[in-house]
Each structure stands twice: as C-alpha cells, then as structure tokens.
C-alpha cells in the first residue's frame, strides 16, 4: 500500500508526451491530411490530388522535474531513483499526449475546393502545481522517508482519452494578383473514452517518524476532489470506453500567401503541360492562424468524491490499507456525487509563418498557445510551444530541423525526414543524443499513399499530353490524337488536305500538280490566259493587234493606228514635207530631195564656209591643244561648224589635220592626227553626232603654200572639214 499512496503525488514524475503532434512535420507543404489537424485551410490548393493516410502516430515525453539521457535507459545498471537529474519545485508540472491517426483521406472536389475525412484517437494527461519537493521525500516509499513538513498546495491532474471522426472543408476565399487567401473548417464527431481528474485544495503533509508504527504519524490538511467517468481508481471497474459519451467539436483557420511572382502563374498563359501550376508552391511568405479543439464531450453519471484531509493517520493505519480505495476510506469525512459533465477539449490557438528563403529551402515559425484555464477543475489543456523549423522540401523528400521551446521542458532540438509515403521524426532526438538531462522525448511516424499534383508530360511538345498522345514521340495535331497526318506523295500537303494524295503537287493547288489547259507550255497557275494558247513571254496569252494591221502591238510603233508591216505598223507619213515618205526618208525631220533619200545635199557654199571656219581654229604651238589666247574666237569657229553640220544629219564629214615641214615628219604626222581628233572631240562635246564625224592627220604631206616663208608655213598649219559621203539606212 505504501507505494500506492504515492499515486496522486508522484504521477507527474512519469515522463509524458507533448501536447502538439507531428512537431516539425505539419508545416511541410506535403504534410497532406496531417496538416488538417492544425489548420483545415491547408488542404485547399495543396500539392496533392489525393493524400491517403494508412496509419500514423505521434507521441512524446515532457516534464519539468526529471531529466535524463534516454539512451541510458537501455543500460541494465540504470536506476531512475538514483540516476537522472531532478529539478524539484513547489509547482512542477508535465503533460502527456498521444495521437493515433487511422485511415484518412484528403482530396480536391473542385479547383478551389477541397475535402478531408479523418479518424483519430487521442489521449492527454495534464499535471500542474505538483510539489516536486514532496517527491524527493517519498521516492523510496513513505516508510523510508525522513520526517517532513511540506505545503503540498493545489495539485491538479486531468486525464482524458477520446476518439474523433472529422470532416474538413477548405476553399479559396480571395485571390487578387499577389494576394491569396484561403480558409477552412473542420466538424468533429467525438466519442468519449476515459475522463479522470484529481485536484487538491490548500493541502499540507506533515510526517513525524519514530521507531514505532503506532506513533509514526502522517498529518494532512486541506481537501482532495477525485472524479472519473469510470471508477477505476476507488472502485472495481476496469478501464473501458463509454459508447454513450458523445460530443461535437470543430477547428477553423485561415491562411494568407504573398505571391510576388503571381504573373508567372497566370492561368490564361498556362499550357496543358503546366497543369495550371498545381504542382508548385507559389508563395514567398505564408501566414496561418487557426483555433483547434473547440467543443466538448458529455459524460453521463460521472462519480465525483470530495475528501476532507484534515486528519492524522498512523503508519500502522496506512500499512493496513492494501490499495488506494482502502487508503482513502481512512478519511471518513468524504462526499460522493453522481452527475453529468461536459468535458471541454484542449482548445488552442496556432499561429504559423513560413518563408520560402531560396528555391526549395524554407524557414517556418509556429506557435501553439493554450486557450484553457489550466488551474480549473477537469480542464484539459495543451502546452504553450514555440517552434522554429528550417526545412528542405521537394515532392518526394523533406528534411527538417525543428528547434522548439516548451513551457515545461525548455529548448529541444530534433530532426525529421519524409521519403514519399513514409515520414518519421522527433522534435527532441538531437537533444536526447547529446544531453544527459533531457526532459522530453518524442517521436512521430506514419505511412500514407500520396498522389501528387504534377506537370503533365508532352515529350514531342505538340500540345497533346503523353497520356492522350497516340504518337508521344512524334509531334502531331490534336485532331489526329497527337500523330502527324500522313503525306503519301511527299509534297508537304498532308493526305487529309491533298486532292491528289498519290501525285505530288503544290499546296496552292491543294496538293495537285498544275495543268496546262491550252497546251501552250505555260502552266495554268502562271498562265494569264489559261484557256487560250499564248507565248511564255506574254504569260501564256496571245499577243494583241489592237489596230488590226497584222502588226502585233509588241512590234507596232503605232498600235492604235492601222499601218504597214514595212512601216512597223504605222501609216506612211512625210514629217518634213519634202515629198519623201518617212518610211523611205533617211532624214525624216529635215527636208531633202528624193534623189538623196529625203536628205539635204551638202552645198559648195557650205563646204567653203566649213573650210574658212576650220582654218581659223588655232592650237598651242607644237601641241594638240586648242589655243587659249584666242579662245573666244576658236569657240565661235567651232559653234559655226556645228551649226553647219546639224543641217546634214546623213552626211559624213572628216576633220583633217596638217602641219608645216618644220621638225621631224613622224612627229608632225602624230601632231596632225591629234589636232584633228581634238577638233572632233570639241564638236562632239557641243552635240554633234559622233557617227557623222571622222578624223585623219596628213602631217606635212599636203602643203597649200611654200614652207620656205613664214606666211606659207602658217597657211600649211591648218585643219579642214571635208564631206566624205552620205549615210543611207545606217550605212556610208
């Protein structure tokens, strides 16, 4: 009995589990249905098509009194009474929490709406205001303890187990450019298990030890209230679930995402392969706020016993009690009642901030704040916890390093991993490895069947997804199920559009070769007159004869006036009115006699004038350069010669150069030729037709005077213009 007596005072020393499950995991964008437990808004716009939880559980150990190295527990020499590190306080505490999640599923019911259904069993034990100094006195049993006089205070213990079936709904509430808001709520159907509680009031304990059990006394003051939905503490009943205890609860939450790159996820620009970007985390910052476990379970006919502890017991009386029931019966002043009770859930506020630092690296900050009065009778509560979790996250893998601070155990460091369908982790494992006085230990693990949202494959990039493409490695149109249309004649016009699928032809003619309807060798596509034969030069059309004179327009100099073939399609004319028709007139613009083919005859007077003017053209001495001293006169002479020559368009003239006999004969010959050419060039420059001119040099061979006198030599240095013939029809 002496160890059973310690039940209410040392229960807190049992290492207990943290009140927040899956620490370090639930912030993962691939936490799936587990994320619903902390914020039901997480299920909408998730990275899953479906997430099916087969089994998962989360349990941890936490208190502020007893610390140890968990790895020392495996040693046979380890004694928990002597080993470990104790921190006895007048208000020690702890919390026990366990969570088992059964078959559960989340899925999308529309692009902006999601649903989750889950099953869950939970257990929690809260221990508050437990006097740790009393434990140090009683850890080896009351009979081994020395005398003590301790203020026990107001110890408070609550234990509760229950089951849940939850339905969560999430929806996108607002989306505008870089702002994205979603919300969710969960409705829970609750089935009670066991609910028990114990609370002391102004309790003290004074132990006077002697060598005689009859004189050794335990004097206590204050009161103790015990309650239980099943009488397994003071009665004979075994622990069992109460199918008549039911209740309802709920969670609700909001999540805001800041998406500065929202233009990159414009659905109007998405391709089929993008799958509307459902596989991507689009936020730079994410903020979440939720309240969970709002509700209660009604237990019927709960037994509650209130004991008055103002009494002194001897050691002999205590040793006579075989169990707690008999020990409590020693306190005769007790009151027992039976009544229905509504037991509230451990309501908590969760805040969450997630920062996508770089690509697949994230930093998460999470807070869990209890909204329950922990000093109240039969009030379950969660532990206030702050968690900072760096993580690396991909679709199939996540690694986390949660660093958390809890109100009982202080700071702990853990680690977590997710490999596709399996996840495992602990928020305290690293601390437990290195610390000899860890006051917490936890673990979570689970196995699920995830179906992720992902980009669709389009290997040949033809806009038809591989899963629907009959030719996934060869591009083709949607109309042909992703296969290219055949082109039998290889003319680049596919058979479905080819009017001549077995004969090559251009696309302009629907895959058929061009014909030649008028057989003029000009294909119909370039034949301006496809039904009338014509030459290639006229685009397949016959040449026209507008005036009907049998001279085709292309050869007719007068296409709109009937004329003679011999006159290039023009009628006979006499433009210069000299009686010689233009057809026979070699000089149609200048009148002349028929005997000279309509051209004027060069007169003797004209020749004499040419002779006078030519002899008055002067040169620089010894050179073929027109003289500059009398340039005005020389230019005038050349103008006069030009005016004479233009009157005879069909006459041929020769400019002849002469010298005196001074100097070398060969040099004089060359000089005479050069001077004759200089005159010809000057006349051509003034507009005389070069076809009407020739030149020749005679040197000193044709003197017109004696070279023995200066006067004679001057006369011999001359140029002359000679009529050498008439040009008829282009010939001299």
TrEMBL record:
PROSITE patterns from the UniProt entry: OMPA_2 (PS51123)
Gene3D superfamilies on file: OmpA-like domain, TSP type-3 repeat
Biological process according to GO: cell adhesion
Gene Ontology terms, MF aspect: calcium ion binding
Signal sequence segment: 1-19
Region (Disordered): 463-491
Entry annotated with the keyword Metal-binding: no
Pfam families per UniProt: DUF5723 (PF18990), OmpA (PF00691), TSP_3 (PF02412)
Keyword terms of this UniProt record: Cell outer membrane, Membrane, Signal
Domain named OmpA-like: residues: 606-727
CDD domains in alphabetical order: OmpA_C-like
Compartments, as annotated in UniProt: Cell outer membrane
This protein's GO CC annotations: cell outer membrane
Source organism, top-level taxon: Bacteria
Biased amino acid composition, Basic and acidic residues: 463-472
Protein name: Thrombospondin type 3 repeat-containing protein
Species whose genome carries this gene: Flavobacterium fluvii
């Amino acid at each position: 009995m002496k160890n059973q007596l310690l039940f209410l005072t040392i229960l807190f020393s049992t290492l207990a589990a943290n009140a927040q499950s899956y620490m370090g995991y639930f912030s993962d964008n691939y936490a799936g249905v587990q994320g619903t437990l902390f914020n039901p808004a997480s299920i909408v716009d998730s990275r899953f098509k479906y997430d099916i939880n087969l089994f998962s559980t989360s349990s941890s150990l936490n208190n502020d009194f007893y610390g140890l190295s968990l790895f020392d527990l495996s040693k046979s020499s380890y004694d928990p009474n002597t080993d470990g590190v104790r921190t006895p306080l007048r208000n020690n505490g702890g919390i026990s929490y366990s969570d088992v999640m059964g078959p559960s599923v989340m899925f999308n019911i529309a692009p902006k709406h999601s649903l989750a259904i889950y099953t869950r069993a939970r257990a929690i034990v809260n221990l508050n205001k437990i006097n740790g100094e009393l434990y140090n006195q009683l850890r080896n049993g009351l009979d081994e303890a020395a005398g003590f006089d301790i203020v026990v205070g107001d110890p408070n213990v609550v234990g509760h187990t229950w089951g849940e079936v939850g339905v969560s709904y999430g929806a996108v509430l607002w989306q505008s450019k870089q702002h994205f808001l979603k919300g969710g709520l969960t409705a829970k159907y609750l089935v009670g298990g066991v609910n028990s509680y114990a609370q002391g009031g102004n309790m003290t304990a004074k132990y006077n030890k002697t060598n005689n059990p009859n004189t050794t006394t335990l004097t206590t003051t204050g009161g103790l209230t015990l309650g239980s939905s099943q009488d397994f503490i003071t009665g004979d009943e075994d622990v069992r679930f109460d199918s008549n205890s039911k209740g309802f609860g709920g969670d609700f939450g909001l999540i805001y995402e800041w998406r500065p790159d929202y233009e990159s996820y414009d659905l109007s620009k998405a391709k089929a392969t993008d799958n509307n970007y459902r596989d991507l985390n689009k936020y730079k910052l994410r903020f979440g706020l939720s309240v969970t476990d709002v509700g209660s379970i009604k237990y019927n006919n709960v037994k509650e016993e209130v004991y008055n502890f103002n009494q002194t017991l001897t050691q002999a009386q205590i040793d006579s009690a075989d169990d707690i029931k008999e020990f409590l019966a020693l306190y005769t002043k007790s009151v027992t009642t039976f009544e229905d009770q509504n037991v509230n859930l451990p309501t908590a506020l969760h805040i969450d901030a997630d920062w996508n630092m770089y690509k697949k690296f994230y930093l998460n900050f999470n807070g869990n704040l209890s909204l329950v009065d922990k000093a109240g009778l039969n009030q379950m509560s969660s532990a206030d916890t702050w968690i900072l979790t760096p993580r690396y996250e991909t679709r199939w893998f996540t690694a986390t390093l949660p660093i958390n601070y809890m109100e009982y155990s202080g700071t702990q460091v853990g680690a977590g991993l997710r490999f596709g369908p399996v996840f495992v982790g602990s928020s305290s494992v690293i601390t437990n490895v290195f610390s000899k006085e860890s006051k917490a230990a936890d673990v979570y693990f689970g196995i699920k069947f995830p179906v992720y949202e992902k980009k669709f494959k389009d290997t040949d990039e033809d806009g038809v997804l591989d899963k629907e493409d009959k030719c996934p490695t060869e591009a083709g149109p949607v109309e042909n199920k992703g296969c290219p249309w055949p082109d039998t004649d290889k003319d680049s016009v596919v058979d479905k559009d080819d009017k001549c699928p077995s004969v090559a032809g251009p696309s302009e003619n629907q895959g058929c070769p061009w014909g030649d309807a008028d057989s003029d060798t000009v294909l119909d596509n370039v034949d301006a007159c496809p039904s009338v034969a014509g030459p290639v030069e006229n685009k397949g059309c016959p040449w026209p004869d507008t005036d009907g004179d049998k001279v085709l327009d292309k050869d007719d100099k007068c296409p709109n006036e009937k004329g003679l073939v011999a006159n290039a399609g023009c009628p006979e004319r006499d433009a210069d009115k000299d009686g010689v028709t233009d057809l026979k007139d070699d000089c149609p613009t200048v009148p002349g006699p028929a005997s000279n083919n309509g051209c004027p005859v060069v007169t003797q007077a004209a020749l004499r004038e040419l002779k006078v003017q030519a002899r008055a053209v002067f040169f620089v001495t010894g050179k073929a350069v027109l003289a500059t001293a009398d340039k005005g006169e020389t230019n005038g002479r050349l103008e006069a010669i030009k005016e004479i020559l233009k009157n005879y368009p069909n006459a041929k003239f020769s400019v002849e150069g002469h010298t005196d006999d001074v100097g070398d004969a060969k040099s004089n010959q060359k000089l005479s030729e050069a001077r004759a050419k200089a005159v010809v060039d000057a006349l051509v420059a003034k507009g005389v037709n070069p076809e009407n001119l020739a030149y020749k040099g005679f040197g000193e061979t044709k003197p017109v005077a004696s070279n023995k006198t200066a006067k004679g030599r001057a006369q011999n240095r001359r140029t002359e213009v000679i009529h050498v013939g008439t040009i008829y029809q282009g010939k001299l």
